[in-house]
Amino acid sequence: MLELNAVHAHYGKVHVLQGASLEVKSGEAVALLGRNGVGKTTALKTIMGLVPATGGEIVFDGRGLTDMPPHAIPRSGIGYVPQGRGIFPSLSVKENLEIGLTKAPPSQVFDYVYDRFPRLKERLRQPGGTLSGGEQQMLAIARCLVMQPSLLILDEPTEGIMPILVQDIRREIKAVNDAGVSILLVEQNIKTALRLCSRIYIMEKGTVVHEAAAEDLKEDKETLHRYLGVAV
Amino acid sequence: MELVIALGMNGIVWGLIIALIALGLSIIFGLLDIINIAHGDFFMVGTVMAWFVFETTGNYWLAFAIVPVLGFALGALIEYTVIQPIKNAAALSIVATFGLSIILQEGVRATYGAAPTRLTAPIEGTLPLFGLEYEIYRLFAALVSIAAIGCFFLFLHRTKLGTWMRAVRFDPETATAMGIPARRVYLVTFAIGFAMAALGGVVAGPITTVDFQAGVDVLPFCFMAVIIGGLGNMGGTVAAAVMLAFFEGVMASFTDPTMARIGSLCLMSLVLMVRPHGIFSGATR
Fold this sequence. Notes:
The complex is a heterodimer.
Chain A: E1 2-11, E2 14-24, E3 29-33, H1 40-47, E4 53-60, E5 63-64, E6 78-81, H2 93-98, H3 107-116, H4 118-122, H5 133-145, E7 151-155, H6 163-178, E8 182-186, H7 190-196, E9 199-204, E10 207-213, H8 214-219, H9 221-228
Parallel strand pairs in A: 3-8, 3-9, 6-7, 7-8
Antiparallel strand pairs in A: 1-2, 1-4, 4-5, 9-10
Helix pairs in contact in A: 5-6
Chain B: H1 2-32, H2 39-57, H3 60-83, H4 90-111, E1 117-118, E2 126-129, E3 132-135, H5 136-158, H6 160-170, H7 172-177, H8 182-204, E4 209-210, H9 214-228, H10 234-254, H11 257-274
Antiparallel strand pairs in B: 1-4, 2-3
Helix pairs in contact in B: 1-5, 1-8, 1-9, 1-10, 2-3, 2-4, 2-8, 2-9, 3-8, 5-6, 5-8, 6-8, 9-10, 10-11
């Protein structure tokens, strides 16, 4: 479904992505882990066309993404929940929710979204900036879902969220995946990644250095320690 | 006393026209980070185009329909050729739009000429108001400005494109990731900014003179309105423009226009000393 082959990307003269390769299969949930500054967020931004790829290829559903204008990428079926959620604070919840729509989706799409996120339905007229962190995260996920993506990319969805709400967000991501949407997740919270995803990629210095099934990685204390500096 | 009322009212009318022009300046600055030194000349080009429409058709009303459309097209062209290549370079934008300002002024001087002309208002006659006979056209100019400002706010808050403009202004990257064609939004924003200044030119044409340097006086006034209103605060810009122009109008009835301008600059300094981010900063945007 999504394939990155030896992708390179630069921020000015800094060579951030140095030939990263990974794959997300249809219906699969995959996590991309690594320490701070190894290029995880850049990898996601490069997929979305927000950082131009300077080498390699990115293929989604048989189509090359690197030549596509960035605004066409979300319309091709990839939903993106950026780090820090990216809610427009002065736009109402409803405006935030419908921001990516150019035509009205089938009514059951909104029924589904409101059913999953009843708090948003109660707050449609409120400015997005007045929502709590957890609610903003729900909104960021919901506004992707109304565009009916086949792949949802999430950049640290539990970062800065009250611990009590982390569970809720995990549950929603799981529900999205169960509904058939593939997931590519970047996380600092390794527990969240191991719980939600079946396959894990680990990045270091701009490239993917390790790939493992989540089940195996849980037991692989040495790898966890070497690349992530943690004991789980 | 009659003079005070008359100049005060003239000030309010002029303030509303300035508000219309300054809103264009404000969205261009807010969305594209462009400090548009040529914005006063967009207004001037509007007055010249209005004069041209009147000269060729003999009907000033047509200018109200045609000139904003021409302004929009010209704005789109300028965004594409001048602004897009220097995107993300605020300092360059000053140089580039300053150059643009010279080109527009000299272009008008070379074609239209250097001699200022007065246009006759399409509505003549006066109306008794507050004990004086007030020109009907000036009231009409105020109404058109209010209607245009109202339409602009409706557009910004009630249409998809308006919502996109507000989203891109806050976070162009996330907006793009939501499928918004940010580059096209920039182009349309700049074009709307030009169209609003040009409409201001049509409205103001019969009040002021058609002159290739007309924009030179309008530009600082627009900047003052945008700054006093609180950068990026559209409602504040409108209020500040009307207040400043009213203040200058009343001042001008006691002294000469130059002293009145000095007075309003002092007022601006005073406001900024007390509220460095403008009178209406912190209000909802």
